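Structure in, sequence out. Go:
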């Protein structure tokens, strides 16, 4: 995790001299003693200076308060922009010091999964907190709790005829069966109530239902309902419509986070400690990577209170930049004679030489390739010259800015997706538990946004950019309230 570490020596004789140098910002901190083998005190706080003043300044009014001034010799801290980032940093620090005990210290239990036992001769489903990596394709979750996973599994089984018993079956016609077979809720493979092929078909249907969170079943039922309606079989259509409603009800029990463990990928956007950035986190291959700073330089940020937009996300000193040509100017330039004495005027808007913010300087030339100036799918040098006047009336400046932002997001994701060393089971469980804990928080308390890839594995970059704007807008609103 590329989080900048700041270190400060602490003298118990003059505690205020060190504490006055600390910021009043959200951070994760570690207090170290004199000896290297002493275990550090690791915590997180929304106000670093205020928290350490309570820990390191003696108070006569609170004699029973924990006081660590006599044992601390060094302070280290990591500035964070959100509680999500603070929890992730704190966990990784605790894991380095305490190993697997870090899970207990942060109460990060193993999430619940619905597991499809596909390797069994007669597959069934069960609930587990320890999904095997070998069968990650058949483990679906994480769910908010074991009760939520059990409810989803029970409701899903009501739509199929898969067995519910936990026995290792040796089909025999003399087997007495069970109550589910008597109620016609199971194919009863125990006493050969069906062929192995028929049971395999039912098991495949259940597996597809779990993998798609019910979408595969909905597509099939909707097609059958429409066909029955077209054939004027209204009673059958009504029965199928009712079944569609049941499947949709079961589908709502599996939130969007519930996916096959091997395919669980997500991008989380959070506020950043750097005012001009939004923090991007990537969950992939069982690990949370990040934060990667996405610069909001040049973005239009939505002002939710006034309903308007501001051109830039942070205060900036902007050098004079020629405005992009208007549509009338573009049409006039295109219609001008190329053999005239003045020559043809370029229709490509000039790019800003530099945009200087209060915290960093960004060169736009380093982010924009010559291909971005041509229409999509056309990289020839004559692309702009061959464009018709109606096509040239499109706002080229807006297209260029959108392309730059998309490239910026793709670069951030590529940096986070870089191959890393194999992580320990503790890190895998901790990162998954942190993601699950944040995702299942009440909507009012869950800050930030999350995005998932589409069916083909591509990220919704445009939707993510809109999410960046919303997160940055909330950062601006919070900053204005504190001023």
């Amino acid at each position: 995790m590329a989080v900048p570490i700041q270190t400060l020596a602490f003298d118990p004789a003059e505690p205020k001299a060190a504490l006055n140098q600390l910021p009043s910002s959200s951070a994760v901190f570690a207090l170290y003693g004199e000896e290297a083998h002493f275990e550090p005190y690791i915590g997180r706080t929304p106000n670093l200076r205020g928290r350490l003043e309570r820990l390191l300044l003696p108070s006569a009014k609170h004699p029973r308060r924990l006081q660590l001034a006599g044992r601390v010799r060094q302070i280290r801290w990591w500035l964070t922009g959100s509680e999500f980032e603070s929890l992730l940093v704190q966990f990784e620090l605790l894991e380095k010091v305490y190993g697997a005990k870090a899970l207990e210290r942060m109460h990060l239990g193993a999430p619940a999964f619905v597991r499809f036992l596909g390797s069994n001769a007669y597959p069934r489903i069960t609930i587990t907190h320890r999904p095997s990596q070998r069968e990650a394709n058949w483990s679906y979750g994480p769910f908010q709790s074991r009760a939520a996973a059990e409810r989803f599994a029970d409701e899903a089984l009501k739509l199929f005829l898969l067995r519910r018993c936990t026995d290792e079956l040796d089909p025999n016609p003399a087997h007495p069966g069970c109550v589910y077979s008597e109620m016609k809720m199971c194919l009863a493979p125990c006493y050969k109530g069906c062929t192995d092929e028929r049971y395999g078909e039912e098991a495949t249907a259940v597996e597809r239902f779990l993998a798609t969170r019910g979408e595969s079943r909905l597509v099939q039922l909707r097609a059958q309902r429409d066909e029955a309606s077209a054939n004027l079989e209204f009673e059958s259509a009504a029965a199928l419509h009712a079944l569609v409603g049941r499947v949709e009800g079961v589908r709502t029990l599996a939130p969007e986070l519930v996916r096959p463990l091997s395919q669980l990928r997500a991008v989380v956007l959070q506020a950043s400690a750097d005012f001009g950035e939004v923090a991007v986190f990537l969950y992939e291959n069982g690990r949370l990577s990040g934060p990667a700073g996405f610069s909001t330089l040049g973005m239009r940020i939505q002002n939710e209170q006034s309903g308007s937009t501001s051109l830039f996300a942070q205060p900036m000193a902007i050098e004079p930049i020629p405005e992009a040509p208007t549509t009338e100017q573009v049409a006039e330039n295109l219609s001008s004679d190329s053999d005239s004495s003045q020559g043809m005027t370029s229709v490509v808007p000039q790019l800003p030489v530099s945009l200087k913010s209060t915290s960093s300087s960004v060169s736009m030339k380093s982010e924009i390739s010559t291909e971005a100036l041509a229409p999509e799918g056309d990289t020839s040098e004559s692309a702009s010259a061959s464009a018709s006047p109606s096509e040239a009336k499109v706002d080229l400046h807006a297209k260029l800015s959108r392309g730059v932002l998309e490239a910026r997001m793709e670069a951030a994701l590529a940096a986070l997706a870089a191959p890393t060393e194999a992580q320990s089971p503790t890190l895998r469980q901790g990162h998954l538990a942190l993601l699950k804990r944040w995702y299942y928080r009440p909507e009012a308390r869950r800050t930030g946004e999350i995005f998932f890839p589409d069916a083909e594995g591509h990220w919704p970059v445009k939707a993510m950019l809109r999410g960046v704007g919303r997160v940055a807008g909330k950062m601006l609103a919070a900053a204005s309230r504190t001023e």
